């Protein structure tokens, strides 16, 4: 075997050196401490997420990303919100988190933000100063309480150059991810279900049905063109038609045995999607997002997911008639543009 020439040897050394440098840079990025702030202390998610992130023995996939400060805010007109704030505030203090009295005070202390207020109505107002400050933000469900506000948040994110990411933890159940990634061939349809309690201040499916809808979109992907809905006191059924003729449905449960799951129909297999697997898989994705600044879910897919739920509400008002998803998205973007007409983040 011929020995490499001098120039070839130089090339090998340069390649090895570059590979080592890239590996070191990636390791340094992962190791760089990230200070996380929380807005809103009215959901159990804040305690669950903080326990994962602030664990002194946290594994590498969530290490060096620590909740350091929180602004405790709840919604006085939602009993399940305001009643939880004192207890969760004390639990976060016990986990070493500093409690501050305003969002501006929080932003001085952190590199990234978890927007956790259980009420979606104030999310747009809460997130605008965060985006203007350049802090990557995870927005917990519901992302907002209207499709217009969801569109406005994504618009503000693009305008400010600051990324946002929103998802239910159900997106990261192993069953849903396996189906999305080709385990049963091409997905030709899916039926999902979840609890679907209602909150009068929000569109029907935004409050809790979003978990099952998130599972549906995880498996099916974007491309829903219309939604029809059947509703009764104990149940909801929203059926979507995709642009390639596929059909996906969501069943919301308020009576009988609840739970999370569904069935995915593929070209090679039909498979049970699986159950809820806890918060940690989502927290891992949040940490990746904070480290890279890249959302694991396309903004347009999340916007379409909320448009599906808004179209289901409109279909209910129209006695089950199919409602165009794109028509609602177009209207929401127009209204969002007006809403943000005077908002210009400083560069």
Automatic annotation (TrEMBL):
EC number: 1.1.1.18
Signal peptide residues on this chain, from the entry's feature table: 1-30
Molecular function in Gene Ontology: inositol 2-dehydrogenase (NAD+) activity; nucleotide binding
Enzyme class: oxidoreductase
Domain Gfo/Idh/MocA-like oxidoreductase N-terminal: from-to ranges: 82-164
Superkingdom of origin: Bacteria
Record keywords, A-Z: Oxidoreductase, Signal
Gene3D superfamilies (alphabetical): NAD(P)-binding Rossmann-like Domain
Protein name as catalogued: Inositol 2-dehydrogenase/D-chiro-inositol 3-dehydrogenase
Organism expressing this protein natively: Lignipirellula cremea
Lineage of the organism: Bacteria, Pseudomonadati, Planctomycetota, Planctomycetia, Pirellulales
């Amino acid at each position: 075997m011929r020995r490499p020439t001098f120039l070839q040897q130089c090339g090998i050394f340069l390649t090895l050196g570059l590979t080592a440098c890239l590996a070191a840079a990636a390791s340094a990025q992962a190791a760089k401490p990230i200070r996380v702030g929380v807005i809103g202390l009215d959901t159990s998610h804040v305690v669950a997420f903080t326990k994962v992130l602030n664990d002194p023995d946290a594994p590498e996939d969530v290490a060096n990303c620590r909740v350091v400060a929180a602004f405790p805010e709840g919604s006085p007109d939602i009993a399940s919100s305001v009643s939880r704030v004192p207890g969760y505030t004390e639990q976060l203090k016990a986990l070493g988190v500093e409690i501050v009295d305003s969002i501006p005070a929080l932003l001085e202390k952190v590199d990234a933000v978890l927007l956790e207020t259980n009420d979606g109505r104030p999310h747009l107002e809460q997130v605008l100063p965060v985006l203007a400050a350049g802090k990557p933000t995870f927005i917990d469900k519901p992302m907002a309480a209207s499709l217009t506000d969801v569109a406005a948040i994504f618009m503000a994110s693009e305008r400010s150059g600051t990324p946002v990411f929103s998802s239910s933890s159900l997106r990261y159940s192993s069953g849903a991810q396996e189906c999305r990634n080709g385990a049963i061939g091409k997905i030709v349809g899916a039926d999902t279900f979840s609890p679907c309690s209602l909150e009068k201040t929000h569109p029907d499916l935004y409050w809790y049905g979003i978990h099952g809808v998130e599972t549906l979109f995880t498996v099916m992907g974007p491309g829903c063109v219309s939604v029809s809905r059947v509703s009764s006191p104990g149940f909801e059924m929203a059926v979507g038609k995709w642009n390639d003729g596929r059909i996906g449905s969501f069943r919301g449960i308020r009576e009988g045995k609840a739970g999370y799951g569904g069935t995915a129909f593929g070209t090679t297999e039909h498979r049970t999607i699986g159950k809820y697997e806890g918060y940690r898989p989502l927290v891992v994705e949040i940490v990746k997002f904070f480290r890279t600044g890249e959302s694991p879910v396309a903004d347009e897919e999340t916007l379409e997911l909320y448009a599906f739920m808004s179209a289901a509400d409109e279909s209910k008002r129209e006695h089950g008639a199919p409602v165009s998803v794109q028509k609602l998205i177009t209207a929401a973007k127009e209204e969002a543009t007006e809403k943000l007409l005077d908002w210009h983040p400083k560069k």
